[in-house]
From TrEMBL:
<dbReference type="InterPro" id="IPR003731">
    <property type="entry name" value="Di-Nase_FeMo-co_biosynth"/>
</dbReference>
<keyword id="KW-0535">Nitrogen fixation</keyword>
<feature type="domain" description="Dinitrogenase iron-molybdenum cofactor biosynthesis">
    <location>
        <begin position="112"/>
        <end position="203"/>
    </location>
</feature>
<dbReference type="InterPro" id="IPR038127">
    <property type="entry name" value="NafY_N_sf"/>
</dbReference>
<dbReference type="Pfam" id="PF02579">
    <property type="entry name" value="Nitro_FeMo-Co"/>
</dbReference>
<protein>
    <submittedName>
        <fullName>Nitrogenase iron-molybdenum cofactor biosynthesis protein NifY</fullName>
    </submittedName>
</protein>
<dbReference type="Pfam" id="PF16844">
    <property type="entry name" value="DIMCO_N"/>
</dbReference>
<dbReference type="InterPro" id="IPR036105">
    <property type="entry name" value="DiNase_FeMo-co_biosyn_sf"/>
</dbReference>
<dbReference type="InterPro" id="IPR031763">
    <property type="entry name" value="NafY_N"/>
</dbReference>
<feature type="domain" description="Dinitrogenase iron-molybdenum cofactor N-terminal">
    <location>
        <begin position="6"/>
        <end position="84"/>
    </location>
</feature>
<comment type="similarity">
    <text>Belongs to the NifX/NifY family.</text>
</comment>
<dbReference type="InterPro" id="IPR034169">
    <property type="entry name" value="NifX-like"/>
</dbReference>
<dbReference type="InterPro" id="IPR051840">
    <property type="entry name" value="NifX/NifY_domain"/>
</dbReference>
């Protein structure tokens, strides 16, 4: 169809909706919308669209996409979610050595200081330095998939190769494998929410109370882990 038949407002809505869905582009979304409501998409047609219709359209093209992500995309498509950009959080100064015993954590994000991004489609990574005593948002890394050179997952993994943990709304198996190869432990948080909530929970278990996976991420040897547990038990 002629792209000029789509209004600028709805084209923007589609673009924002696409960013909420992993491995989805405008062409894929238009194909689904064509089957669900017919083209061109109009405000009236989009107002009646449902998550169920999105999942079933085009023989289930989006059936495997996380429902929470589809709800978020639907909010943009129907104009219910504000199109204005949320201000980004302030970044704190950090130099290597400032926070002994800390780890670096990435959060996949689309809006503000939210942990609401899917690995393959998030707009940015929020980078935190976290120890048992404090946490700092030290950097915001914007994502430009035009730099991916044919390997989007590899490109995105390279952006956070210095991190030990990745919090993400969802991530596919191949992408998770790439994260593990660069030394980051991916953790899915499909319920999404403020990034600081997950960072605070992580901060509470860093150190002697770290679970085995986190102790490994922090570089603690099995002997250190046993010692920490013995000290905790006799304290």
């Amino acid at each position: 169809m002629n792209a000029s038949a789509i209004s600028n407002d709805i084209a923007l809505r589609i673009g924002l909706a696409v960013r909420e869905l992993p491995d989805t582009n405008a062409a894929r979304m238009l194909s689904v919308l064509d089957d669900a409501i017919g083209l061109p998409p109009t405000d009236k047609k989009l107002s009646g669209l449902t998550v169920k219709a999105l999942k079933s359209a085009r023989d289930g093209e989006l059936a495997d996409v996380d429902t929470t992500a589809l709800k978020s995309a639907l909010g943009y498509l129907k104009g219910e979610t504000s199109l204005s950009a949320e201000p980004l959080p302030e970044v704190s100064a950090y130099s290597d050595g400032d926070m002994p015993g800390s780890i670096r954590v990435a959060c996949a994000s689309n809006k503000g200081e939210m942990l609401d991004g899917h690995f393959g489609s998030c707009k940015r990574f929020l980078i935190y330095q976290v120890s048992d005593k404090e946490n700092r948002l030290i950097e915001i890394r914007e994502i430009d998939d035009t730099q991916a050179d044919g390997d989007k997952n590899g490109y995105r993994a390279s952006l956070i190769a210095d991190c030990q943990v990745l919090f993400v709304a969802s991530i596919g198996g191949p992408a998770a494998a790439k994260m593990v190869r660069v030394g980051a432990h991916p953790i899915k948080k499909p319920q999404m929410g403020p990034a600081i909530d997950e960072i605070t929970k992580l901060q509470a278990v860093i150190g002697s109370k770290a679970p085995p996976w986190l102790a490994k991420v922090m570089g603690q040897s099995p002997e250190e882990r046993i010692r920490f547990e013995q000290e905790e038990a006799t304290a």
